[in-house]
Amino acid sequence: MLATLLATALSALSALPLPLGDEHDLLVFADGKEVPCRVLLETDAKVVYRARKKTSEVSRAAVKEVQSVERSLREYLARFEAIDPRDVAALAELATFAEARYLAGEAHATWIRILTIDPENEQAWTKLGGVRRRDGWELRVRGRFYTLEELRTRASDWQNALELRTAHFLIRTDGPPERALDLALDVERAYLTFYDVFGKPIELYVFDEVPEIHVNTDPKDYSAPPVAGRAAWFERNANVLHVNGQQASERGTIIAEFTDALIFNAFRRTLAKTGELEPWAREGLRQAFAAAARPAPGRLVFDFTAPYLPHFQAQARDAKPLTLAQVLRAGLASFDSGSDQPRYVAQSYTLLHFLAFYENHKYRIGLANFLRESYLGKGGTANFFEALGVNEKTVEAEWSAHVQAVAGG
Fold first, then answer.
1. Residue 220 predicted with pLDDT over 50
2. Closest Cα to residue 322, out of 299, 347, 341?
3. What pLDDT, on the 0 to 100 scale, is given for residue 133?
C-alpha cells in the first residue's frame, strides 16, 4: 500500500517545474575576467564556450578556472558513490550541493530518493513543494491539493508516468521509482564516459537538446520497434529512446541503443547538421559501449580495457569471415538482420577495437578524423584509408593478426 501511494505521489512531484537556467557555467580567465557561459568542450589544449549566443575558442592556458555542468555532475556522482545511499542526512547534504551547483534535476531526484527511504521527511517534502496540513502532507497538482490517498486515483500508468529530469536527459517511466532514480544516475555516468572516451578525441560538444528515455513496464505501452522483439530502440525524429521494461535483462541491446542517442545528439550539436556515421562505425561504437558496461544500479561503470572476447573468438574461428571491404561497405540493414548479421556485428566491434588500440593507438587519431568527416558525408573506403594513412592490404592484415592475438589470449 505505502509503496503504491508513494510511487503515485512521486509521479505528481516529478511534474513540478525545475528552475533551469541557460548559462550557469563560468570561465575565469588568467587576467581575472569572469565570463558566464556554456562550456561546450574542454580539453588539455583548449576550451570552447558559448556566451551571448556566440561560440568562441580559447587556449586552455588562458583559462584559470572552469566551472561547468559536467564538472559539477562529475563531483555529484563521485559524492553519491562515497555515501550510503540510504543515509538520509548524507543524501540531504548531496541534494543541497546539487542545488548550489545548478544541477536542478539531480537535486530534485535526490530529495525524491529521500522520500523513498523516509516518507515523512519534512525537509524533502518542503523542498519538493509539499504542504503540511492537519492530516499530513499534501501536494498541489494542477491547482488542486491532494493527499496521498487521493493520489491513488492517479495510479502509475503510462499516462501519469514518473518524470525525472537529469542534467542531460528526461526519463519517463511507469516502473518503480527506486529503479528510475538509479537510472537517472546511470544515464549521466554513461554520458560522462561517452565524452571521456569518444568525445574528447573527436572533440564533440556537449548537447543542449534533451533526449527522452521512455521505460515501459507494460508491453502494450511500448512503441513498436523497427526490428520485432528488440528490447530498446532509438527514435531519431522524436529524439526518444524507447525501452521495454519487461526485457530489462537485455542490457547489451539497451546500452547499444542508448549509445545511438548519444552519437546522434553529440555529433549533431558539434557539426551543426544531422548526418550519419558509416554503418560499421556506428555499430562498432554501439557494441564497444555495450561490451564495456559493468551494470550496478546507480553505480554503472565502463571498462574499455578488456576486449569482448566472444566477438573476437567468433571472427577468429569463422571459416569464412567477412573481408574488410565487406564490413566497410555494408549498409545499415546488414547489422539489423540476415544470416550474416552476427558476423557484421562482431566484426564491426573488432575493427573498431583494432583501430582504437592497435600498436600504441597508432590509428586512433585517424579514426577520430574519419568519424567526424564521415558524419559530414565524406565517408567511403577511399577516405577511410586516407585518414589512416595506410592501404587496404596493410589494414586487413594487421586487423586479422590483432583478432587472432586477442582471441587466443
1. yes
2. 347
3. 84
pLDDT band at 146 (very low <50, low <70, confident <90, very high): low
Do 22 and 36 touch, CB atoms closer than 8 A?
no
Count the neighbouring beta carbons within 10 Å of the beta carbon of residue 5.
16
Instruction: For strands 131-133 and 136-141, give the pairing.
Output: antiparallel
The average pLDDT across 317-323 equals 96
Residue 207: pLDDT over 50:
yes
Give the model's pLDDT for residue 14: 53
Task: Show the CA angle centred on residue 223, arms to residues 14 and 212, nearest 5°.
Answer: 40
Q: What ranges do the domains of the chain cover?
A: 2-19+72-271, 25-67, 303-408
User: For residue 241, is pLDDT > 90?
Assistant: yes
Residue type, 305: T
Three cell numbers, residue 264:
546522434
Question: How far apart (Å, rounded) are the C-alpha atoms in residues 41 and 198?
Answer: 13
Residue 234 pLDDT greater than 70, yes or no: yes
Q: Locate all alpha helices (DSSP H) within 251-363, ordered by sequence.
A: 251-271, 279-292, 309-317, 324-329, 341-361
Task: Enter the C-alpha cell of residue 40.
Answer: 561546450
Q: Are strands 63-67 and 25-29 parallel, antiparallel or unpaired?
A: antiparallel
What is the Cα Rg of the chain in Å? Answer: 23
Q: Is 395 exposed, middle or buried (0-12, 13-18, 19+ CB in 10 A)?
A: buried
Sign of CA dihedral 165, 166, 171, 177: negative
Helical pair 104-117 and 2-14, crossing angle rounded to 10 deg: 160
Distance CA 77, CA 260 (A): 23
- Decide the pairing of beta strands 170-173 and 212-216: parallel
Sheet of 162-165, strand order: 162-165, 170-173, 212-216, 240-244, 232-235
Q: Does domain 25-67 have CATH number 3.40.630.10?
A: no
Please tell me the predicted confidence (pLDDT) of residue 231: 96
Instruction: Encode 84-147 in three state secondary structure.
Output: CCCCHHHHHHHHHHHHHCCCHHHHHHHHHHHHHHCCCCHHHHHHCCCEEECCEEEEEECCEEEC
